[in-house]
From TrEMBL:
Part of the MsrPQ system that repairs oxidized periplasmic proteins containing methionine sulfoxide residues (Met-O), using respiratory chain electrons. Thus protects these proteins from oxidative-stress damage caused by reactive species of oxygen and chlorine generated by the host defense mechanisms. MsrPQ is essential for the maintenance of envelope integrity under bleach stress, rescuing a wide series of structurally unrelated periplasmic proteins from methionine oxidation. GO terms for molecular function: metal ion binding; molybdopterin cofactor binding; oxidoreductase activity, acting on a sulfur group of donors, quinone or similar compound as acceptor. Mo-molybdopterin binds at N61, Y64, E65, C119, T154, N202, R207, S218, I219, K220. It is an enzyme of class 1 (oxidoreductase). This is Protein-methionine-sulfoxide reductase catalytic subunit MsrP. Residues 80-236 form the Oxidoreductase molybdopterin-binding domain. Binds 1 Mo-molybdopterin (Mo-MPT) cofactor per subunit. One of its GO terms (biological process) is protein repair. It comes from Roseivivax lentus. Heterodimer of a catalytic subunit (MsrP) and a heme-binding subunit (MsrQ). It catalyses: L-methionyl-[protein] + a quinone + H2O = L-methionyl-(R)-S-oxide-[protein] + a quinol; L-methionyl-[protein] + a quinone + H2O = L-methionyl-(S)-S-oxide-[protein] + a quinol. Belongs to the MsrP family. Its cofactor is Mo-molybdopterin. Pfam families: Oxidored_molyb.
Amino acid sequence: MAHRWTNDMTRADATPERMFLNRRQIIAGLAAGTMLGGLPGNARAQDALEPNSWEEITSYNNYYEFGTGKDDPARYADQLTTEPWSVTIDGLVDRPGEYAFQDIMSEMTIEERIYRFRCVEAWSMVVPWNGFELADLLDMAGVQDGARYVAFETLLRPSEMPGVARSVLDWPYVEGLRLDEARHPLTLMATGIYGRPIPNQNGAPLRLVVPWKYGFKSIKSIVRITLTEDEPPTSWNKANPREYGFYSNVNPDVDHPRWSQATEREIGGGLFSKRKPTLMFNGYEDEVAALYEGMDLSVNF
Ligand SMILES: Nc1nc2c(c(=O)[nH]1)N[C@H]1C(S)=C(S)[C@@H](COP(=O)(O)O)O[C@H]1N2
Ligand SMILES: [Mo]
């Protein structure tokens, strides 16, 4: 599959996790074009960020189905059965159906994407994901003309999810994107981290990653994708519409009602590290600003 976007970050050679990367999963063209410094348009000095460690990425998580503590998912999510797994793709598509995870994987091209990840709680990481573009999966199902949004749903299996009995959210966890956001080349369906299968606490076996939006848009362990005409409901918006909008684009100028979004705490930065400024669209402004032309981003937050 052709690449419509190239990484703008490089991995520090010294990162120990480098050894775990499964080179066979990474396309030679992408690797050659980006890991050696990048193409001129994408090579920005401030973007040469180092990914967080495997340990950091897999032990500090939000996955409320397993509890609201940051260490609950790593503790409880190994109970989750992820094989077999299938994703129902329905709504306004030409080929609706239940797609087996393995059949999806055999059709998709897995690449590596090193993305900034910014939680609405004002912490951040850098994650080297493996995955495929959501646009390719949508093409597999064939999006029909009337479709304008994409709705996503997480597995709901209370017997394996100790958090669902106790939390503030309605289950199953649901999310949504406008179709043009869903088709954007940055929008990834992640199936791995550091070349290994994605751990349960990070959303196995496949989760959404939308790097210019707050982390809660990146819905985990997806079992249903529905193409719709109308804007779909989203879990955090249902829970607190004043605090969480449908768009939820990272924006340092639009504060959360209870805290500033101007800066962020880097996970792994150490107890006394300085907060760093949050970037517009989490640093992906050049790539995505056009999607929101003419919109008031403080109204459509
Ligand atoms: N199903 C589901 N998806 C979810 C969440 C959740 O609680 N349940 N939490 C979201 C939030 S708030 C964030 S910040 C990210 C965290 O992803 P990570 O744990 O892989 O860093 O997952 C998002 N996806
Ligand atoms: Mo989050």
